[in-house]
Amino acid sequence: MNPRAAVLARRRERLVQRSGNLRRTLTREIRAAQPVLAWADRLQDVWLWLRGNPVMAVAGSMALAASRPRRWLGWGLRAWSAWRLFQRLRAPGDKPSR
Hints:
Elements: H1 3-52, H2 54-66, H3 69-90
């Protein structure tokens, strides 16, 4: 094998190794972003549904406005507190933020 071919073969091996490393890094980063992308897909689905059903969106908004907003706020705060408690209980190794 001539010297130039040997240099090219070594360079090719390094490039193939680097490509593999980059592929593994990209795979890890994509896996980390999957929950965020799943939420984005859900939000897009909701947005498309609302655009396709504007009467339902207006009716829901009117019903919320006509009902007692304090009651809805209270239920929202209870749901938020329950969610935070659930998150704390779900990860027992983590310390609470407060």
